[in-house]
Specification:
CATH topology: Uracil-DNA Glycosylase, subunit E
Strand content: 5-15%
Number of strands: 5
Shape: globular
Number of domains: 1
Structural class: alpha/beta
CATH class: Alpha Beta
Bound molecules: uracil
Largest sheet: 5 strands, mixed
CATH architecture: 3-Layer(aba) Sandwich
CATH superfamily: Uracil-DNA glycosylase-like domain
Radius of gyration: 17 Å
Low-confidence stretches: 202-209
Helix content: 40-55%
Distance between the termini: 13 Å
Order of helices and strands: HHEHHEHEHHEEHH
C-alpha cells in the first residue's frame, strides 16, 4: 500500500526496542496493509513461523485464514489488512510460543496497533481469537461475543470470530466458522454500501441490496 505515513510508521515499528520482546524475536512482524477504509483482520501475536518470515499468519492457521478469506472472495494485502496486536513473538523460557499477557497487549497495541488503525481507518475490524478481542474489550469472553458485531468507542465496527488455530483443533466448528465469514462479508458489504451512498448523493438507494462482490468496492 503506497502511503508515506504508513511506510514511516512501519519503519518505526520494525526497529522498536521499547520492551523486552525485542530480545526473543528474530524480527518484528509489522503486518500487511490492504486498502485504506477497508477491512482489517487482527490476530494476537506472531508465532514461530511469522517470526522467522516477518509476515503475519504464515503457519497452518494462516493457511486456514487464507482459505476462509478466499471463500468470501478476498485476498490478503490486495483486499484487506492483516495485523497483530503484538508485533514481536512472545516466547517461553524454552523458546515455544506463549500467550501474550494483558500488559504486553496494552503496551504494544496502544503503541503501534492504534496508530496503524488510525492511518488505515478501516470500515470493519475483525478480531480473531480471544486474545485480540481482549485488547479491544478487556472484559469480553470470546464464547459470548463470537459471531456478532459491536460498535467500538473509537468509531470502528468490530466483528468477533474464532482464531483459525482454535478451529484446527475443533474441526466440528468449521460450518459455524464458514457462517462467520459469510457474516463478515455481508456486514462489510453493508458498510461499504452505506459509505458509497453517503459519498454520492446522486446515487439512488434502490441498488443497496444488490449482490456485489467485495472487490467491486476496493
Ligand atoms: N496467530 C496470530 O494470532 N497471529 C499470527 O500472525 C500468527 C498466528
Amino acid at each position: 500500500m503506497a502511503n508515506d505515513e504508513i511506510a514511516k510508521l512501519t519503519e518505526d515499528i520494525i526497529i522498536c526496542e521499547a520492551c523486552y520482546l525485542k530480545d526473543s524475536r528474530t524480527q518484528v512482524v509489522p503486518g500487511l496493509y490492504g486498502p485504506k477504509n477497508g477491512l482489517c483482520i487482527i490476530g494476537e501475536a506472531p508465532g514461530y513461523y511469522e517470526d522467522k518470515q516477518g509476515i503475519p499468519f504464515v503457519g497452518r492457521s494462516g493457511k486456514l485464514l487464507d482459505n476462509m478469506l478466499s471463500g468470501i472472495g478476498l485476498e490478503r494485502e490486495k483486499d484487506l489488512s492483516i495485523l497483530n496486536v503484538i508485533k514481536c513473538r512472545p516466547t517461553t523460557a524454552d523458546n515455544n510460543n506463549r500467550t501474550p499477557t494483558n500488559s504486553e497487549l496494552k503496551f504494544c497495541g496502544e503503541r503501534w496497533l492504534f496508530k496503524q488503525l488510525k492511518l488505515l481507518s478501516p470500515k470493519l475490524i475483525v478480531t480473531i481469537g480471544s486474545i485480540a478481542l481482549r485488547f479491544f474489550i478487556p472484559s469480553a469472553a470470546v464464547t459470548k461475543y463470537v459471531g456478532k458485531s459491536y460498535d467500538t468507542d473509537f468509531g470502528i465496527k468490530l466483528y468477533v470470530t474464532y482464531h483459525p488455530a482454535y478451529i484446527l483443533r475443533n474441526y466440528n466448528l468449521m460450518d459455524l466458522y464458514n457462517e462467520h465469514f459469510e457474516g463478515i462479508k455481508s456486514l462489510y458489504l453493508n458498510l461499504l454500501n452505506q459509505n458509497k451512498i453517503t459519498s454520492d448523493n446522486k446515487r439512488s438507494t434502490k441498488g443497496q441490496g444488490e449482490q456485489k462482490s467485495l472487490t467491486d468496492f476496493l
